[in-house]
Each structure stands twice: as C-alpha cells, then as structure tokens.
Design brief:
The chain has a single domain, classed as Sufe protein. Chain: A (Alpha-Beta Complex), CATH 3.90.1010. It is built from 5 helices and 3 strands. The protein is globular. The structure holds FE2/S2 (inorganic) cluster. FE2/S2 (inorganic) cluster (FES) binds next to helix 2 and helix 5.
C-alpha cells in the first residue's frame, strides 16, 4: 500500500465537484495507457472563466484525488490561467504522490486542458 499524504486521502475520501455537467461548454476525456484508468472533465465557461467544472474518474485513489484537486484549482480561473496548470503543480498541491503513483497525476491537467481546447474549438467553429 503506497503512502499517501493527508491531502490525497482527504480529497480521495471527500472528492469535490464530482459528476457531469448538463450541456457542458467543453468536454475533455483522457485515458491512462499505463493502467487503463479514465478521467472526463466537463466545464461551463462564462466571460472566459471556468464558471463550473465537474469530472468523472474511473481510476485509482490517486487519480480521484488528482481530479478533485484539479477541479478546485481550475474553478474561477480564466481559460489561459487554467491552461497553465501542470500535472506537477497538481501533485505539489496534493503534497506529493508516491513515486509509483506519479503517472496518475498526468490525467488531471491533461483532461482539463482537453476540455478547454474542446470549448475553444467550438467557439471558433461558431464564429
Ligand atoms: Fe491508474 Fe492511478 S493507477 S490512474
């Protein structure tokens, strides 16, 4: 059993913003080739900011904690700011992840960025 920080355990046992938004402005889904786990983020955008964000994570405890942390970090941020959130920052905010669980943090920011890209592609297509 890997050693998890208190922060990871806290987000794992009480994940924030879990679920899926109705009619999201952007959707981002990624799979982890290492373990086959999946993460899906849905976002609502208003005035270029992430107004609401939810996720579904089919994965390990670390992946669930990562998605919860990413949702907290991204909510209220501008799209440019949210695009700058890195997997490393997410792991740092969680006070570290065990070495063999670092790959789990890759899903979080990647799925968020994909959701933003999806939104931007839709806006472009409409204009
Ligand atoms: Fe799959 Fe952590 S083991 S994301």
């Amino acid at each position: 059993m890997p050693e998890y920080s208190d922060k990871v355990m806290e987000h794992f046992t009480k994940p924030r913003n879990i679920g899926e938004l109705d009619n999201p402005d952007g959707t981002g889904e990624v799979g982890n080739p290492v373990c086959g786990d999946m993460m899906k983020f849905t976002i609502k955008v208003k005035d270029d900011r992430i107004e609401d964000i939810k996720y579904l994570t089919f994965g390990c405890g670390a992946a669930i904690a990562v998605s919860s942390m990413v949702s907290e970090m991204a909510k209220g941020k501008t799209l440019d700011e949210a695009m700058k959130i890195t997997n490393k920052q997410v792991a740092e905010e969680l006070e570290g992840l065990p070495g063999n669980k670092m790959h789990c943090s890759n899903l979080g920011a990647d799925a968020l960025h994909k959701a933003i890209e999806d939104y931007r592609a839709k806006v472009k297509a409409e204009n």
